[in-house]
Known about the structure:
Layout: H1 7-27, H2 39-46, H3 50-62, E1 66-69, E2 73-76, H4 93-117, H5 120-137, H6 144-156, H7 163-169, H8 171-186, H9 190-208, H10 212-229
Antiparallel strand pairs: 1-2
Amino acid sequence: MSSDLPPSTEGRLADRAYTGIVRIITEDDLAIGDRLPSEAKLAATFGMSRTIVREALARLASDGITQARLGAGSFVKRRPSARLGTHMPMDALATTLGTYEVRFVLEAEAARLAAQRRSDRQLDAIERALEALRSALLSNASAHDEDWQLHRAIAEATGNAAFLPVFDHLQDEVMRILRAGVDISRSRPPEVIGAMMEEHDAIVEAICAQDADGAALAMRWHLSQGRKRLMP
């Protein structure tokens, strides 16, 4: 049965359900592969409709945290890293991770267009931003500003000024992710930071070669891997 609530209200309730389910995973110490409570039980726990809970579960699945199994319910696929809480309040997790859906569309197309249209000056700016990121990642520097500047330089190289205000609108949420991603990655073996750098290299190499499809694919891969890095 569909909800009669306005979309904005439904979205806020789905955010609350999303946060509540993540809290169940973390506070009840559910392991990967554990089954979540049923939709009906979650709806009763949160005082919401099953439609809202279903939307939250769909978003959790999209973010790689849960996995639905036909006829069996939803199961934990990945647990958000405990270190995430030092970078964002749990209540902001749904909104912050939700920016990935926008970034998949926006930044993959930006990389594609940058590969097709970038000028020599813009390519130079991208390459300089890449080297600044490399220096920051391989040191103890924070690196999130350098990461942001590289992605923004790619958006600027589209030659379409409409990309920049949309990209900049996401800055606060993206910066939370970038800070968390670097911090979590540095807590793991060195090859994790190496993989992050290789992903950026692949994007820039494709833009340099004017390989539009390769640049879009490399960007999507980087973003998908970045989302996974937020999990243990």
